[in-house]
Amino acid sequence: MDRIRIRGGTPLRGKITISGAKNAALPLMAASLLTVEKLVFQNLPQLADITTMAKLLGQHGTQVEMGKGAATLHTPSISNVTAPYDLVRKMRASILVLGPLVARCGKARVSLPGGCALGTRPVDLHIAGLQKMGARIDLEDGYIVAEVPRGLTGAEIVFPQVTVTGTENLMMAACLAKGETVLVGAAREPEVTDLAECLVKMGAKIEGIGSDTLHIQGVNALHGTTHSIVADRIVAGTYAMAAAMTGGELELVGARMEHLQAVIEFLDRVGISVTSTKDGFSVRRAANTIRSVDVNTAPYPGFPTDLQAQAMALMTLGNDGCTIHESIFENRFMHVPELCRMGANITVNGATAFVRGVPELHGAPVMATDLRASVCLVLAGLVAKGDTIVSRVYHLDRGYERVEEKLAACGAEIERLAA
Ligand code: UD1
Known about the structure:
Blueprint: E1 3-7, E2 13-17, H1 22-30, E3 38-42, H2 48-60, E4 63-66, E5 70-74, E6 82-83, H3 85-88, H4 98-105, E7 107-111, H5 124-132, E8 136-140, E9 143-147, E10 156-158, H6 164-175, E11 180-184, H7 190-201, E12 205-207, E13 213-217, E14 225-228, H8 233-246, E15 249-253, H9 261-270, E16 272-276, E17 280-285, E18 295-296, H10 308-315, E19 321-325, H11 335-341, E20 345-349, E21 352-356, E22 365-367, H12 371-383, E23 387-391, H13 394-397, H14 403-408, E24 413-417
Parallel strand pairs: 2-15, 3-14, 6-7, 10-11, 18-19, 22-23
Antiparallel strand pairs: 1-23, 1-24, 3-5, 4-5, 7-9, 8-9, 11-13, 12-13, 15-17, 16-17, 19-21, 20-21
Helix pairs in contact: 1-2, 1-7, 4-6, 5-6, 6-7, 8-10, 8-12, 10-12
Uridine-diphosphate-N-acetylglucosamine is lined by residues 23, 26, 92-93, 121-126, 161, 163-166, 191, 305-306, 328-329.
C-alpha cells in the first residue's frame, strides 16, 4: 500500500486547479442509467471512486469511454439490475444506482452498503421514498430488492433529515415516474443542484432547484446531453486550509466562492484573507496568529462535514481553545488520535471535540482512516516539524486528484512512496 512522506515547514505558494466534484460526478454518472442516449461529462475528476462507479455501471450495461477532456457514458439497454456487494462495499455512493434502475427497469437488487468508518449510515430514507412511490422493497441476504412492475408513481416525500444521496436517488427516480413528486426537506448541496441542472438538460421537469422543496414532473423518457461538472468545493476548501496552515498564498483556479460561504466566513474569523480572482479565488494568511474559532457542521449552506477534519487540523495551531461540533455523522473524529500523535491537544466528548491550540506540530507516522481524515493528516504534515508518513493513502486517492503533485508544485516537500 502506498504511503505519503511530507517534510513540513514550507509555506505553499502558487496556483492549484480545482477538479470537478466527486460528489457531483458520482450521481451524474448514475444518471446515465436513466436514458438510452449518450451523456458526455466534461471536468470528470480522475479518482478511484470514479473508476469504481464506472465498473459498477459497466456491469449494469453502460458503455463508459474515458476520453482526455470528456467521458462518454452510454446505456442502450440494462443488462443486469444487481449492484453486487463487492463493489458497493468499496463505495457507499453505489446506492445511487438504486433509484435510476428502479425507474428504468421496474426492478433493482442493490447490496446494502453496511456500516463504515463514519458510523452506521443507514439508507432507510432512500428505501422509504421509493416505497412511497409504489415500489415493493424486501431485504434479502444483505440486498435491497426493489420491484415496481407497473412503474413508479409520483408522491410527496418529506425527509425527516437532510440526505444528499437520498435526495439525488429519489430525484432521479422521480424524473421517470408517472405524475408529480414533491421532495420536501431536500438537500440543497451544490452537487444536488448540478445533478438537477443536468437532468433538466436531459429533458426532466424539475422546479425549485437549489431550494429545499423540489417539484418533479415525471416524463416518459430522458435524452442525452453534455454537462461540465461543478468544481469541487471540498477540494477547494481543503487547499484553502492548506494555504492558511502553512502561512502561504494559493490561488484556487476554477473554485467557486459562492459554494463555500460558511467556510470563507470561518476563515475570515480565523484571520485568513480570501479574495476573488478572475479565475477563482485566492487564500492568504494575513496575520501570524491563527485565531481559534468554533465550528459546527450542518447541511448546506452550513459548514460542510467534509471539511470538519481539515478545519480541525487548522485549529490545532490556534491561539486559544475552540469546539468543533459534528452534527451530521457519528464517529467522524477518527483523525483525532492521529493528530494527537503529532502533538495536537484535542479531547472528544460525544459529538464535540475541544481543540486547544499548540505552538507547533511534529512529524509522526500516522494512519488514514477515511477520505477527509487522511487529507487532514496531510495538512498537519505540511506544517509539522520533521517528517510525517501517512499510510493507507488509498483513502486519499478516492477523493483527491494527484494531491502530492499539486502540493509539490506549490513548494511542499511531499512524495509518494510506492508499496
Ligand atoms: C453525502 C456525501 C458525503 C457527505 C454527506 C453529508 C456523496 C457521494 N457523499 O453522503 O461526502 O459527507 O453527504 O454532506 O455525495 N441518513 C439516514 N438515513 C438515510 C440517509 C441518511 O439516517 O437513508 C443520515 C446519515 O446517517 C447522516 C445524515 O443522514 O447522519 C446525512 O447523510 P447523507 O446526506 O445521506 O450522506 P450521504 O448522502 O451518504
